[in-house]
Amino acid sequence: MSISSYLVCPSRKLIIGLGKRLRDESGAVKGFSVGGKFLAETAGAELVIKFSDDPEFDEIAGYREIGGDEYGDITFDECMRAEV
Q1: What pLDDT, in 10s, does the model give residues 14-33?
Q2: How far apart are CA 3 and CA 21, in angstroms?
Q3: Could you tell me if 65 and 52 are in contact, meaning their C-beta atoms sit under 8 angstroms apart?
């Protein structure tokens, strides 16, 4: 099972997928690559990284996902044009 990573803004109930964890030689997570608009619009709000194997992920999975394909999600194009 592949474990995905997400940047989460709990106060706005938004998530953006970061893909898989990138690890260094010691196994520590070394970073992620994300788009800048999400970070700009959530500046000052709490942001956390969550993994799909976290026990509380079921709640987070109900947030609107930028780039997701479920009802209520926000496409990348919509995200770039308007405030979400």
Answers
A1: 888 877 777 789 988 776 64
A2: 8
A3: no
Contact 37, 79 (CB under 8 A): yes
| Nearest to 17, CA basis, from 81, 77, 80, 69 | 69
In the numeric block, which tokens belong to residue 78? 């919509």
Q: CA 31 to CA 43: how far, in whole Å?
A: 19
Tell me the CA distances in angstroms from 31 to 21, 59, 62, 70, one per residue in order: 7, 24, 25, 27
Residue ranges covered by each domain of the chain: 5-81
The whole-angstrom separation of Cα 15 and Cα 38 is 9
The pTM of the whole model exceeds 0.85: no
| 15-42: b (≥16 Cβ within 10 Å) or e | bbbbeebeeeeeeeeeebebeebbeeeb
d(CA 21, CA 66): 19
